[in-house]
């Protein structure tokens, strides 16, 4: 195991926001910064997501569940209005969409890739 703490730190202010593009689909108004990349899965499992005002992510399934924390702004998820400081855990197989009328910044932990429905 690598014991150099500096190899595990992500300076988020030094990373550029990237447009969210999954399987060739560009989700307008949603941007991402990878915090933890899983080499075995070849994907990020912990990310920051930024939604511009009015942006939305379609109805989808979380095969392994998810955890999210609203850092700024607000979002509507499965009919629930989440605001700054709110935390949500969804169990495996939970399905929902996400919309942000005012924009938001969300910390996401996603053990497995989502499935768009």
Automatic annotation (TrEMBL):
Ranges of residues in domain ChrR-like cupin: 7-108
Gene3D superfamilies (UniProt xref): Jelly Rolls
SUPFAM superfamilies: RmlC-like cupins
Protein's UniProt name: Anti-sigma factor
